[in-house]
Design goal:
- About 15% of the residues lie in helices and about 40% in strands.
- With about 300 residues, the chain is an alpha+beta fold.
- β15 and β16 form a beta hairpin.
- The longest helix is centred in the N-terminal third of the chain and has 24 residues.
- The radius of gyration is 23 Å and the shape is globular.
- It binds calcium ion (CA) (2 copies).
- The site of one calcium ion has 7 residues, from loops.
Length: about 300
């Protein structure tokens, strides 16, 4: 577009006065600017990780770190230290958090990892009526890696986020001594809970309808994935270190409740651990399993902590 406009403009301008040449240059500048704007408007998704600062409009404009990759956009609550939205490449949010008091399973309970609950404080949850604040520091920022560390207001807990082009990790880096936590996916497969939702995990290759609960220790490597037959992808959560602690899934009327180290209301995790959450662009069990096990560093030692 630019070259044809420019050549037409150039051919025309050679036959006219100096002032017209000036106008032609203006026209060319406008054409180039328009092309540049069109290019920006059609910008390809990033191949790396991009960190920006803004608000999550679906969470009452909560101030957020916005981390964009080729397959997902993560909204990380700057005060709460938990994710309020995970948006897929079709613009669908698989968490569905909003903070309205009393919304319960329809909003305020949702998120990831929602990990410190009525322990030594309530932390690492998108901010709802009971979330206590944490302070955040961006400790790494490049195209390949964004790292953000949250410290709870009481100084007893530390949660570390690591975003890579193909993965988001949450590490509970410091646990308040004598207390326990869990790591939850409380969300909405494909944008809402409905009858087309399903899930499967590391226990076997059977696809479970969304109402089917699970109670027990997931076999290592520990992971589960949630899908909706109306979408071409699943959302997975994984725990990097295998353990013997109970895990649990059940459906609430408006959201999933999946927990590593959770069972019957109890919390079991007392040591630092790492977890991943993200999308796999497939709904086939074998393909999803292969993608997760090749992408997630299962059994890895904990990352160097800031
Ligand atoms: Ca759904
Ligand atoms: Ca377990």
């Amino acid at each position: 577009m630019e070259s044809s406009v420019a050549s037409e403009v150039a051919g025309f301008s050679s036959k006219v006065s100096h002032s017209m040449v000036h106008s032609a240059r203006m026209l060319r500048a406008i054409a180039v600017t328009t092309l540049a704007l069109l290019t920006v408007g059609c910008a390809p998704t990033p191949s790396g990780v991009v960190l920006s600062h803004g608000v999550d409009s679906s969470a009452d404009d909560a101030p957020s770190f916005i981390i964009t990759t080729a397959v997902a956009t993560f909204y990380l609550d700057k005060q709460g230290g938990g994710l309020s939205s995970i948006v897929d490449r079709d613009g669908v949010d698989w968490l569905g958090f909003h903070p309205r008091a009393g919304s319960g399973w329809k909003g305020e309970y949702r998120g990831f990892p929602n990990s410190v609950h009525r322990q030594d404080g309530n932390y690492f949850h998108a901010v709802n009526a009971t979330t206590e604040p944490s302070s955040a520091v961006v400790t790494a920022q490049s195209d390949a890696h964004v790292q953000i560390v949250f410290t709870s207001a009481n100084g007893k807990w530390q949660g570390q986020w690591d975003f890579y082009p193909d993965r988001c990790d949450f590490t509970m880096a410091q646990v308040s001594e004598g207390y326990r936590y869990w790591v939850l996916y409380e969300g909405v497969p494909g944008g809402e809970i409905n009858e087309t939702d399903y899930w499967f995990g590391s226990m076997d290759n059977r696809v479970r309808e969304i109402h089917e609960p699970f109670s027990g220790d997931l076999p290592g490597p520990e992971w589960v994935a949630f899908g909706d037959s109306n979408t071409p992808r699943v959302l997975y959560v994984a725990q990097h270190q295998d353990d013997n602690h109970l895990d649990e899934y059940y459906m609430r009327p408006y959201m999933t409740v999946f927990g590593f180290g959770r069972n019957d209301g109890n919390k079991y995790l007392s040591e630092p651990r790492s977890f991943s959450i993200g999308f796999v662009e497939s709904t086939n069990y074998s393909t999803v399993k292969e993608a997760i096990t090749s992408r997630v560093p299962f059994q890895a030692t904990l990352p160097s902590l800031k």
